[in-house]
Every structure is written in structure tokens, then in C-alpha cells.
Amino acid sequence: MQRILVAGISGAGKTTMAQALSARLQLPFHEMDSLRFTGPNWTVDPDFHQQVATIAATPAWIVDSIGYPEVRDLLWTNADTVIWLDYPKAVVMPRVLRRSLRRTLLRERVFGGNVESLSLWFSGDHPAWSSWAQHAARRAEINRRTTDPRFAPLRVLHFRSPRQATMWLRGQRLPASG
């Protein structure tokens, strides 16, 4: 378990899990949205694909995403483990709504210095809308990929509740030093 994708819908806790696992296993963590959005107005980094390719070629990493379409196969081909946070809407929606509300009200800066504005809430790109609308499709995509022979051998850890994921994470220990 050296090249890990933490997959799930927005609000599942991918970044939180990836950061915690990175600290426990002492593997480098890469936040997908920070790699992709590097400027104002949600500007996509023109070197995004190359950055992800460079990361994917290294021997150890943790990424908090199934990957944007242009880098998805690259990540899945190089991963050895997928941690799938497969939570129901009843779990993810309150999380994504609280997070987005906090970010909007406090004008928290995220990826590339951007902020979630009130107008973004009325866009189909808003995390709350996309989490709601894409829940079933994202679940189907991850399920398809976890069984696709192109990505074998791939270790899949499939968690259907935050409690399951937390219990598993508690059991992860630092690698033995040699």
C-alpha cells in the first residue's frame, strides 16, 4: 500500500482520510483540487496533467480523488490501493452543506485562492449540487473501475460507513523502519 487513491463523492471525507493516512503511513499526500485549480476564477493549471503524471510515476503517494477525467486512467493505472468511501446521501449531504456554508460565510480561501460565493450555490458546479446529482453515477463509476481488469491488481478497501473507515484507519500503523 504505497500508491493510494481515496475515492468517493464530495462530502465523503476523502481529504480528511487521505491526510490522516498520509500522517500514519508517512506517505506524501496530494490534494487533487489544489493541483488542478491554481488561480483566481477557478483557473485550471495548464500543467495539471504533467504534474499528476509526475506524481503518479513516483513510488509512493496518496491522492484524495478518483481523478479528473483527463488524469483518471493515469492515476488508476499507477495506484495499488483504492480506499472507497461509499457513504449514502444521508451522510455526505449534511457534511458537504456544512462545509460549503462555512466556506461561504467565512469567505475561506480554497484552491488557488478562490472562495465559494453565494452565486456559486446556484451553479450546477457547486459541491452540494454535484454531490446530490452525481451520487449514483460516481458510485457506479468507482464500482466499475474497481472491477476493471485494466486496473488489476488493485487492492480495494470499500467502506460503507464513516465508522468502518475510522476503525480501519485506527489499525494502520507507521511502517517499520529498516
From TrEMBL:
<feature type="domain" description="ATPase AAA-type core">
    <location>
        <begin position="4"/>
        <end position="47"/>
    </location>
</feature>
<dbReference type="InterPro" id="IPR027417">
    <property type="entry name" value="P-loop_NTPase"/>
</dbReference>
<dbReference type="InterPro" id="IPR003959">
    <property type="entry name" value="ATPase_AAA_core"/>
</dbReference>
<dbReference type="GO" id="GO:0016887">
    <property type="term" value="F:ATP hydrolysis activity"/>
</dbReference>
<dbReference type="GO" id="GO:0005524">
    <property type="term" value="F:ATP binding"/>
</dbReference>
<dbReference type="InterPro" id="IPR052922">
    <property type="entry name" value="Cytidylate_Kinase-2"/>
</dbReference>
<protein>
    <recommendedName>
        <fullName>ATPase AAA-type core domain-containing protein</fullName>
    </recommendedName>
</protein>
<dbReference type="Pfam" id="PF00004">
    <property type="entry name" value="AAA"/>
</dbReference>
